[in-house]
Amino acid sequence: MDFFAIRGAPHPMKKFSLLLTASLLLLLSAFQASAQGVVLMPDSTNNRLVAFDPMNGSVLTSNMFALAAGATPLHALQVSSEIWVSEQIGDRVARYDFSGNFLGAITGLDNVRGMALIGSTVYVTNAGTANGAPGNAVVMYDTSGALLGSFPTAGLAPSPFSVLGHQGGILVGSSSANDDIHRFTLTGTSVGTFHNSASLNFVEQLAFASNGSILAAGFSSNNIAFLDPNNGNLLSSFAAAGARGVYQLGNGNILWTSGAGASIYDVRTQTSSLVYAGGGRFLQFATIPEPSTFAILGVGALLLGVATRRSRKH
After folding, report:
1. Distance separating alpha carbons of residues 173 and 181, to the nearest angstrom
2. 74 and 281 in contact (C-beta within 8 Å)?
3. How far apart are CA 268 and CA 273, in angstroms?
4. In the CATH hierarchy, which top-level class contains the domain 38-293?
5. CA-to-CA distance for 68 and 201, rounded, in angstroms?
6. Are the C-beta atoms of 66 and 50 separated by less than 8 Å?
7. Would you tell me how many other CB atoms lie within 10 Å of the CB of residue 73?
8. What's the rounded Cα separation, in Å, for the pair 267 and 248?
9. Positive or negative CA dihedral for 133, 134, 137, 138?
């Protein structure tokens, strides 16, 4: 007969399991505390992923991990515990873990550009018809990579280049007329023009400014524009030759990219300085766990599973 059961004391394995669970909760807190916020950018010249400090724009690592050569990576987006990278010439969305291990790819696309994770749906811009792709369209996937459908943007935002979740719907930036930026519902119904003027031409990335206005990178208009979030009117802009990506830093300055690399626009001096040389592309905030904490959590989960199996045997 089990002595611990007679005395009403907790069984040793149960006590061990409780202690281990408490330890794992402490590890989880450590994981959350050590998770590092970064701004990711694919370098399409050197085929690597670059990470910037989201507060001041300094380069944290110029080579987080290698990307496929000759694929022209445009946008790196965190999707759950993965990093999805759109490949314009590769005609796919490559999937990696945090360490850069290749996990597979989403195909059936052609001339892929920017993406957005809105709720549990990933929106991907597509502009070609090869590989069975739908032409000028936004293609939707769930976070496991399963196809959910697509909707056309022809005649509204031809040659779609970027997607941004906005006021319960989405904004789609276009690299050609008719509209620079067009509004759609989350399911693809047109809501009308958001912005279309001579102030912007060939819109690449869209992002939010810290005050809620919309940032738009104008590749051919050579500027970064601030747009009213409600009506799309131009509020202000600054010169940014061949602008591709844009992100407002925690200190208020603007990190933006071009074919020359990544630059920081100082809002006080109204000047831009190059901080990274390479093929600058879209900028995206992500939360990357520290490798050591990530490994500890894996070991802890394994030990908890072993403890649970042992306690069941008793």
Report:
1. 4
2. yes
3. 13
4. mainly beta
5. 30
6. no
7. 26
8. 11
9. negative
Paired with 86 in beta bridges are 75, 93
Sign of the dihedral defined by the CA atoms of residues 252, 124, 44, 178, in that order: negative
C-alpha 204/C-alpha 193 separation (Å) is 16
- Identify the DSSP state of 54: T
pTM of the model: 0.83
Contact 206, 187 (CB under 8 A): no
Please name which of 180, 177, 216, 217 lies closest in space to residue 195, comparing C-alpha atoms: 180
Q: Tens digit of pLDDT for each residue in 90-113?
A: 999 999 999 999 999 999 999 999
Tokens of 39: 């701004």
Interacting residues of 19 by C-beta distance below 8 A, sequence separation 6+: none
Is beta strand 214-218 parallel, antiparallel or unpaired with respect to 223-227? antiparallel
Query: Is-contact 285 39, C-beta < 8 A?
Result: yes
Q: Which two tokens stand for residue 203?
A: 């819109």
81: helix, coil or strand?
Answer: coil
Token pair listed for 95:
């999937």
- Return the amino acid letter for 253: N
Ramachandran assignment for 81, one of left (phi > 0), alpha (psi -120 to 50 degrees), beta (any other): alpha
For the chain, which residues make up each domain, given as ranges?
38-293
In degrees rounded to 5, what are phi and psi of residue 309? -65, -40
First to last CA, the chain: 12
Cα–Cα distance between 234 and 240 in angstroms, integer?
Answer: 16
What tokens appear for 101 in the block? 């291990």
Rg of the chain over all Cα atoms, to the nearest angstrom:
23
Q: Using one digit for the tens of pLDDT, what is the confidence trace for 248-277? A: 999 999 999 999 999 999 999 999 999 999
